[in-house]
Every structure is written in structure tokens, then in C-alpha cells.
Amino acid sequence: MTKTVARRANAAPTDPREHARAIAEAVDYAWHSRYGGSRIEVPMSVVAALALVAREAEDPDQLAALGETMERLGHEGFGLLVQRLWCEFAMLRPDLNPRTKHLWSWTDEEPDETVLHAVQAVGQAAIRKGVLARFGPDGWGETDLLGMLLQTMKSHGGRKGIGQFLTPESVTLLLGRMVAPDEGARILEPCAGTGTMLLGAAQAMRENGLDPTRCEWWANDIDPLASALCAVNLHLWGLGWRVVVGCGDGLLDQWMHEALEHRQMAIDEVQRAWRMARQIAAVRYVLDLPTPEGALERHMRKARPKPPPPPPPAPPPSSTFDAEAAYRQGRLF
Ligand SMILES: C[S@@+](CC[C@H](N)C(=O)[O-])C[C@H]1O[C@@H](n2cnc3c(N)ncnc32)[C@H](O)[C@@H]1O
């Protein structure tokens, strides 16, 4: 592990919930002190994108190096990076696109300079607070960082006294143990918030040696932001592909029909896009067209820390005269 990661990991709270709180407060402060505005889905999408990168990383050292590069990106480069990360997630999980769209649609709108500066400040704050190191390869699965962030930002650090309040993980785990779902179960949460109840159920299953990806997970919330964060969470927590996330009135069952329909439409759309991308790639290959460096790649290359220079070559011996050997042979006196 590099020195930077080790230093950050030491400085971060050991309790995952406390760590999530520290990240959420830093992000809230960074967003509001840079005049980020009222669209709190923007900072949340930045943190969610970073969490998704951390989740997919296999090598902590590689992740730390990527974190260093990301921290050095300018506001334009950081904006492009967040946009790319969401594009890749949209291809990876098209089934969640109808919900996650609420988080990434701002990246399609050519955000202005002020928003981009605030986005960069949020990303840097989250990275400095150790979002990558804590929530890297094995860190997920025990806490709801996005839920903590939603609560913090909706009440702006509790100062406005309004907000959305979610059940803490210690309680959801207890409830999960009481329900103790079996593999093959259909688990339904019509007012899911960011999905913490489902996390508790999945944790309880894992404790019993069961695989939560063998269940069907249905989640819904009337708030599009909570529902979008829930969709990301279900991926971060590794609940698999049998997942349906809706956004509607949980007192009616219409949300279930709509969620299934929108899910299928999104999958079909991405399949069409893949077919077209494959055709374009085949034509480029046949015509042997070079691939120009993209704007994001240019920003990343410039931000990447330079490798240390190679050590200077050993100086040539100042003299070939071996005084010690000459002394031993008694030639000096
Ligand atoms: C107190 S939070 C609890 C969330 C989650 N069940 C938990 O325990 O952490 C209540 C959630 O219900 C959602 N909600 C309220 N009325 C709803 C409705 N009619 N349909 C769906 N969701 C609703 C709110 O947006 C909020 O996210």
C-alpha cells in the first residue's frame, strides 16, 4: 500500500458509519462552500461514481494511484471523468438506468464552470476523506454511505432541521436477522429510502452462509433521488441481477408494473447501442483508422504523477590507481 493510502486509512474513523458521516459532512461542506446550488443530486452522483470505481477495483495500490491522479485533475477533467464513469455504469447495469438517470442527467447538460468547480471540490473532499480506501474492494457491504449523504445534504448538516431519516445499519441488521430470508425469497421494500433495510436482510443472509444474489429484490421510493441512490446501493452491496427498483407511490402496485416495463426498455436500448458500437468498431478496424486521444485521456495523462527519475549512473572511478593494493605490495615506501 502506498504511503498516501496508509496515512489516510490511519486518519479515517475505524467505525464504517462514523467514516461515512465524516465523508458526508466533508462533501456537504465542499458543495455549499463552492456555491454548488440546490441540485444536491450532483454532489451525490460524484460520490456514487467514486464508490462505484472503488467497488470495481481489484488492486488497492492501483486504486490509490488512480485516486492520486483524480485528485490532481482540474475541474474540466474531473467533470469529464464523472461523465465517463456514469457512461460505463450505464453500459454495465442498463437495468438500473431508469433510476440512476436522475443522478447522471446533469452530465449531459454541459454544466457551467461554477458547477464544475463545485464538482471537483466535492470529489477531492471525498477522496481526501478516504472514500476510495475505505470503500475499496472489500469495504462495501456493511454501511450505507449514500444514505448518510442523503440525510446530511437534505438537512444541510442538520442546520435546516428538515430532511429524510433512514434506519441505522445496526437496526436494519437486527431486523434482517429476525426476518432471516432464505435463498429464492422475494424481498419487497415499497418505501425503501436508499435501501438500508435490504442491506440488513442481505447481511443476515451472508451471516448464515446464504447467497443474496439468489433472491429477488424489489425496492421503491416516491423520491427520485432516494430511489436512484437505492439502485446504486443494490449494485454496491452485490445483490446481483434479480433487482427491480421503482419510483412511485408505494401504497399502490402500479410502481411494480412501471418499474419492470422501464427496466426492459432500458436493457433493449443499451443492447441496440452495443450493436451499433460493434459495427462502428468493425468499420474502423477494416479501414485501419487510428484512435485519437480523447479529452478525458489527455486530462488524465497530464494529471498522472510522474514516475521518479532513474538514479544517476555511478560516477566513473576517479583513478585506476589502487592505493591499498600498492601499499600491501610495499611499493609506496
Ligand atoms: C423514514 S424513511 C425510511 C426509509 C427506509 N425504509 C429505512 O428504513 O431506512 C421513509 C421513506 O419513505 C418514502 N415515502 C414516503 N411516502 C411514500 C409513498 N407513498 N410511497 C413510496 N415511498 C414513500 C420517503 O421518501 C422516505 O424515503
TrEMBL record:
Keywords attached to this Swiss-Prot or TrEMBL record, sorted alphabetically, are: Methyltransferase, Restriction system, S-adenosyl-L-methionine, Transferase
What are the DNA methylase adenine-specific domain coordinates in residue numbering?
Answer: 159-257
Q: Which InterPro entries match?
A: DNA_Adenine_Mtase, DNA_methylase_A-5, SAM-dependent_MTases_sf
EC top class, as a word: transferase
Region (Disordered) location: 298-322
Does this UniProt record's set of keywords contain Transferase?
yes
Start-end of Pro residues biased regions: 306-318
Question: What is the E.C. number?
Answer: 2.1.1.72
Instruction: Give any single GO term for biological process.
Output: methylation
Q: Could you tell me one molecular function GO term of this UniProt entry?
A: methyltransferase activity
User: Which reactions are catalysed by this chain?
Assistant: a 2'-deoxyadenosine in DNA + S-adenosyl-L-methionine = an N(6)-methyl-2'-deoxyadenosine in DNA + S-adenosyl-L-homocysteine + H(+)
Superkingdom per UniProt: Bacteria
Protein name in UniProt: site-specific DNA-methyltransferase (adenine-specific)
Pfam families this protein is in?
N6_Mtase
User: What PANTHER family does UniProt report for this protein, alphabetically?
Assistant: SITE-SPECIFIC DNA-METHYLTRANSFERASE (ADENINE-SPECIFIC), SLR6095 PROTEIN
What high-level taxonomic lineage is stated for the organism? Bacteria, Bacillati, Actinomycetota, Actinomycetes, Micromonosporales
